[in-house]
Input
Amino acid sequence: MQQLSKQIYNKPERKIKIMQFGEGNFLRAFVDWIIQDLNDKGAIDGGVAVVQPMPFGRVKELAEQDGLYTLRLEGIDDGKNVKASRVIDVIGDCINPFAEYERFLKYGESEDLQVIISNTTEAGIAVDPTDTDFSACPKSFPGKLLALLKRRYDYFKGDAGKGLAIIPCELIDDNGEELYRCLTELARINNMDEKFIEWMQTANSFTSTLVDRIVPGYPKDEIENIKKETGYTDNNVVKGEIFHLWVLKKQPRVQAVFPADKTGLNVIFADDIHPYKQRKVKILNGSHTALVPVAYLCGIDTVGEAVNDPVIGKFVKDFVFEEVNPTIDLPQEQMTAFANSVIERYRNPYIRHELMSIALNSTTKFKTRLLPTLTDYIRIKGALPKRLLFAFAALTVFHRGKRGDEDIALKDDPAYLDFWKELWREFDGDYVALARKALGFGQAWDTDMNALHRDLTQTVAGYIRAICEKGMRQAVEELVNG
Output
């Protein structure tokens, strides 16, 4: 069976108008798929140069297939199970800047280049003060982008019309503004000309974004069937769900060169992306974090099993609709539609989402995904969100590190794991004292949650007692049916 390449696929030739920092599963299953749609429907006519942001990566594998790869989308669409494969052909160049630094910088001289897109993990947008040697490839993503922009500024002699639309997709708040800040700080660390810094800040547009699609990656369990369906071998197959959402902060220059909202996909240019970010983090990520310890301690291992369990499924749904939705300032019909889509995504029969993969760094995830809902709910309602507090109690018991006779492979910040271990080692049967210590763990929460409501500590203590003495299954059934 032949390997996917231009030998068996008629790949169109396009001018490179987009540079993409990152060649991982998410960008290929989300951004490049959207770029494919824009090209197919005539909204743009441009190819992508993929830049490998780390010394290790897969640009070599992509180049061996002439930038071609298969995207497999699987999920539920309008109540129907869907499986669809298609070739993505927009990648026109693959660059390892650690080995091809000058070839990478030459793109700064390109008249055709218009857009920069990135997804270099949450840690990627950060200043590395040791990035001071621009004669070789900088280590950090901001360092690489700064080098490219400096080459562009010098080559075009500071022409304000040669700025780029810069669209980061890293999952941090205000990612566009943060990248702008990092580039400015790094330029000043390197004593770069203030005229260049001004050009970088004003000639280029930095757009904050929110992205949403579950991408499991390479479908190793299905690859033989996919080979039979497609008739070729592809070492770069990537699998994603049907659902997708991209919210970008409105920027006229970005919308002009990258009209991603013009082909009917779920792409939104918004004046303010914060409500959408809140919606995603609080509903999708928050419900994930809430259900993990509850479902796992019930003997369940995946998200799909959890939402299809009548008790856990009701727990999750009631948490979202009754405790999260009231804290988000968006029209109720939008909230209901999004919440229903999240539950439908959880039921996707083609994606096996392990609870323990979501449990990674669960202490930090409670702070970022659930604590804002807790404080907002108390402020708005003047009452306690009982399912959210039950989830906190479950998180506390989860960190005891046992599911029956089985050890739980806890993975978190070592300081947090030490806290939980000590908490349970010192436990003497006083559930109120245990709850007070857990809620007052300021190093993790940056606050003392005991002070949020007069009944909060006793409520959490009661839930911990119920879980420990009755078992998780009975405790959550009493909560849900009470």
